[in-house]
Each structure stands twice: as structure tokens, then as C-alpha cells.
């Protein structure tokens, strides 16, 4: 499909830079059978029925934005260079893929010093500023240092309008967050509060939890003119047996966010039916796709020409 079909004007002053308080007072546009109605997220229990299942992503966002210095090379290459690092996919206990700036100032085997206790070696370079890093720490030790040194990786459309601050550590995490591994929040889940969850439970709406670790590749703009030429970055997901049991008994399955939806549909496409599993997915959903599991979607607005807008 022509990518330009998914373009639209997005004025910067229409982008919320902070969440509303409480979170469930965010505006909600309900679309069903061609009809649209305005609500808030707090109205969700009235839009769902007993037996419906909301499927949420319980991934937890890590502080994936780091700053480092590529030390001056002994033979050419100039002096020290400041390097911005945005981790986007873990490939081993001590290895991450990352988008870096300025990537053109890096070569394989270059060392990036992030602090006196953390550094990384560039061991591969890909297109678009995408590089592979091997750190001098591993596993939980590496996680702890990243948590100490890193900052919240706000979406670019927010980050270019304001700086990251201490509020973002709390605001950019869902009430479901449990399993560390995402470099961006599954944003549809940001609108839920403990009080809203209590009201949903009282209505007879159940919550099924799965994990999909969101990678920055999901949000990259499509550089081709045709969707058939776009290659998706893969992301890791895990669907536990208890989620499958709830979903298979559901009256309706409503995915909270495109990440939950992509995990569910990936499993069904891979297996012929929804199954408990952990694996990678690079599913790319565009108009005409036949959904196998999901009956409804709760989602935020998405950027022009983005794969997420195409999915919606």
C-alpha cells in the first residue's frame, strides 16, 4: 500500500506533554459500527460487559537513554566525541542494540565510556545509526548500572518539546509494569488507575497479562513509499498459560495497546491458535488483515506514516 495514504497533519500543540491527573480522566473516543462517541477512560466499565477480557502488557520501561564519550583514537579520528545512546533491544546478558548519534563518528571496536564503571565496545554497525554494543557488565549488574545512569526515553515528539525530569520516572510507567525490558511504554496502559481496575473487576471484566518488550524500532518512520518494502524490527513477547485460559473463555477480547494486540495476533498466526509461548515477532499489520484473536482495541493516537497508525 502507498505509505502516503497514512499521512496527516499533526500540529505540535495537539500533543499532550504530561498526563492528565488522575490518569483515567484522559479523553476516550469510542468507535463502533461506524459511530463515534466521546467519553473519558473512567467510562470504560460502562463500555464493556461482564465476561469481556482486557489484555494488558505488563512490561516495565528501563532508563534506556545513556550518554557516553568515544575516546580519541590513537591514530586519527580527532579527539573525544560525545555520543547519545538509546538502547532498543537486548541481544545477550552483556549486549544491546542501540540507536546512537552521531553514528558516523563510530567504528567497530571503538570504546564508549559512559561512566567510571560502565563502558561499551562497538562490535557491529547497521544502517540508520543502529549499532551493536558489548558492555563491560552483564545481567543484573548491567541492569542496575543502567537504572542508575540512564534516563527515561521519552518519545521523540515529546522530547523535542521539553526536557526529561523526575516526574517522568513515575508518569512513564503503567500500573501493570512488572517485567523490565522495554525502551518505551505501552502507552495505552498509562491511562489505568487502581480505582479504575477495581470498578472493572466489579463489572465482571477480567484482566489478562502478557509481556511484550517494546523496542524503539516499532516507532521508526517508514522510509519507503510502499508498505511492502518495510522491514519491521522484531520484539520479544511472552504469553503465559493463565492469560491464554482467560482469553479463550472471553466474551470479547479487547487489547490494551498495539503491543498487546501484536503479541496475541503473532501467537495465533504462528500456531494457528493462541498458545502460551515466548518468542520474537516482527508482525506488520496493515488494512485488510484478518484478526484471529482480538475483537477490540484500546489505543492512543499514533504518528503519521507510522506502522502503529497503519495497524489501527
Could you explain the architecture of this structure?
The two termini are 15 Å apart. The chain has helices at residues 44-47, 139-149, 156-159, 166-171, 194-203, 241-248, 258-271, 307-311, and strands spanning 27-32, 35-40, 53-57, 59-61, 65-70, 81-92, 95-101, 111-113, 119-125, 130-135, 179-182, 206-212, 235-239, 253-256, 277-281, 296-298. It has 8 helices and 16 strands. The protein is of the alpha+beta class and 312 residues long.
Number of helices: 8
| DSSP strand content | 25-35%
**What distance lies between the first and last C-alpha atoms, to the nearest angstrom?**
15 Å
Radius of gyration: 20 Å
Mean pLDDT: 93
Major sheet size, sense and barrel closure:
6 strands, mixed
Low-confidence regions: none
Which characteristics define this entry?
312 residues, alpha+beta, six-stranded mixed beta sheet, six-stranded antiparallel beta barrel, 16 strands, 20% helix
Element layout with pairings:
Elements: E1 27-32, E2 35-40, H1 44-47, E3 53-57, E4 59-61, E5 65-70, E6 81-92, E7 95-101, E8 111-113, E9 119-125, E10 130-135, H2 139-149, H3 156-159, H4 166-171, E11 179-182, H5 194-203, E12 206-212, E13 235-239, H6 241-248, E14 253-256, H7 258-271, E15 277-281, E16 296-298, H8 307-311
What is this entry, summarized?
This protein is of the alpha+beta class and 312 residues long.
